């Protein structure tokens, strides 16, 4: 029985060398990896669900959220072109410092040309009532006009500006004889506010410039003429369709 006991160290040494040789073998390493992979627990491959942020605890300092830049905004296109009619009333001056009551009507069409701009055409007609100054009669005058009309909104607000210009012809009946008629150009500027999509009010100034003969019946020469101006300031209402 002593022989096996004496050989036991040799057997253990041989087994250790054999185990060490197997651990150094590439085939053994591959086999060990496959065994470990087969015995590893299967993990859940489903996509992770987003977790709701936890409610802040009492007394905790709130964390700043990352800033998200707002999307770039575009100016709205105000599709408000179309037909319009208006009526105006106020005061007018044909002669210096002699005030006459004035009234006018207008109609036309404007096209939308930008986010806040409209351009169109207009026809108008008006009257300056007769009045008296120092015992003298200032006769009534009437006129008709045709021209261009442009409207510009101040951004996306309800306030707007109006620019007008064109040609006019006027007549004035003189009870003392010598009826007067003339023509020329007009230009106007106004400011107003939209009450709603179809109605607005405005205040406008218009200048009427014309040439009058000085010595002769016709303005054949520049020196024969003098240029005069009549003015009106009127409050107006306008309806759009």
From TrEMBL:
The molecule here is called Outer membrane beta-barrel protein
Q: Where is this region: Disordered?
A: 32-75
Question: Pfam families given for it?
Answer: OMP_b-brl
Q: Where is the composition biased (Low complexity)?
A: 38-72
Organism equals Pseudoxanthomonas putridarboris
* Superkingdom of origin: Bacteria
Give residue ranges for domain Outer membrane protein beta-barrel.
60-216
Signal peptide (UniProt feature, chain positions): 1-21
What keywords is this UniProt entry annotated with? Signal
Q: Which InterPro entries match?
A: Beta-barrel_OMP, OMP/PagP_B-barrel
